[in-house]
Amino acid sequence: MKQYFAFQWHITDDCDQRCKHCYIFAENTCKQLDSMTWDQMQEVVANCEDFCEMYDRLPYFYITGGDPILHPDFWPLLELLAIRKIPFTIMGNPFHLTDENCRRMKMLGCEKYQLSIDGLEQTHDWFRKSGSYRTTLEKIGTINRADIRSVVMTTVSGTNIHEVPGIIDAVVEAGACVYAFARYCPTSGDKDTGMTPQEYRHLLEICDAKFKAYEAAGCGTYFNRKDHLWTLYQYETGEFHIPDDAEPGMIYGGCNCGNCHITILPSGDVYACRRVQNSKVGNIFEDRLADLWVCEMESYREYDQFQKCARCELKPWCRGCPAVSSGANGDFYAPDPHCWKTKNDLTGEVL
Questions:
Q1: Strand, helix or coil at 306?
Q2: How far is CA 226 from each of CA 12, 231, 344, rounded to the nearest angstrom?
Q3: Deepest of 22, 137, 166, 242, by most Cβ within 10 A of its Cβ?
Q4: Which pTM was predicted?
Q5: Cβ neighbours of residue 323 under 8 Å, at least 6 residues apart?
Q6: Helices vs. strands in the chain: H and E counts, helices first
């Protein structure tokens, strides 16, 4: 059990981009934009604090949207979190980041600000909107000057997989503190990510070499190997070893869903994971989070139900991405469509 419990909190759907892979509109392109009231936001903080007190955890908020800075009570919320001494990261757009705004976020306790780059300029702007690529790279410096850690994330699919090495060069040159990528989760309208397992493994191989070259050169960017298939890759290269003292049945890593993470949407709906479209477990204005955690959330902790991972020696540390599995197959416990592993190397059993 980790000390901090992560609440990914979408305070508003309001946004000045309309990204082609946005989950807000994945199931309903005409969706009404939801946004929490100030009273509701205070209620959310209280419910989350109650949860953490119940389970002896510390709250950590990932404040997002839409673009959270567009919410009329964005600054009062940050002031409330500062009073409650709750640390937070903001995940938003670059367009409203000024030196003054970033200094104010830092003063109120913002630790990281996460931006997205989903391709080189032409591809990224096609995904998001014209001018977004250059503005995002420029605002990395604005975030850094305020002494907030700048984080850049890429959502990888067949559309941009070949541009990821170039994205890495661009964000390093711009001075990003952290870089990571995750995979696109298909929605009901599109089940194909456009990548084969072998293509994705090849990307990890290329990025691993690039990360190590930058690290050896003293690069200031931290490369977060976020995707759990990095564990499989490093197991094959010998950089990850199964500990001799690992206890049978213990879960040591892998997906945090059901372990130390939940998502709260502007409507109050509580999701096991934002990237799993059918993972609603309750509503924060109607339910006590502490009760949802031991009841409705239990169905996301049935590790022996993983159709492929349950038979793999890496189950306690990997399990791929159940969100990608769910998007591609409609089943949280289905095999990860990008896992290239075909057998249990310890038993020889075909997976």
A1: coil
A2: 26, 9, 23
A3: 137
A4: 0.94
A5: 185, 255, 257, 273, 275, 276
A6: 10, 10
| Alpha carbon distance 149, 114 (integer Å) | 8
Buried b (16+ CB within 10 A) or exposed e, 111-127: ebbbbbbbbbbebbbbb
pLDDT tens over the chain, length 351 residues? 458 999 999 999 998 877 666 666 656 555 688 999 999 999 999 999 999 999 999 999 999 999 999 999 999 999 999 999 999 999 999 999 999 999 999 999 999 999 999 999 999 999 999 999 999 999 999 999 999 999 999 999 999 999 999 999 999 999 999 999 999 988 766 677 789 999 999 999 999 999 999 999 999 999 999 999 999 999 999 999 999 999 998 999 999 999 899 999 999 999 999 889 889 999 999 999 999 999 999 999 999 999 999 999 999 999 999 999 999 999 999 999 999 999 999 999 999
Contacts of 138 (CB under 8 A, 6+ apart): 94, 174
Cβ neighbours of residue 72 closer than 8 Å, sequence gap 6 or more: none
At 24 the three-state DSSP class reads coil
Report how far residue 337's alpha carbon sits from residue 351's, in angstroms, rounded to the nearest whole number: 13
Compute φ and ψ for 190, nearest 5 degrees. -150, 110
Q: Which two tokens stand for residue 50?
A: 């109650």
Q: What are phi and psi of 173, to 5 degrees?
A: -60, -35
- C-alpha span between 275 and 333 (Å, rounded): 14
Amino acid letter, residue 46: A
Separation of CA 166 from chain center: 21
Q: Which residues pair with 59 in a beta bridge?
A: 5
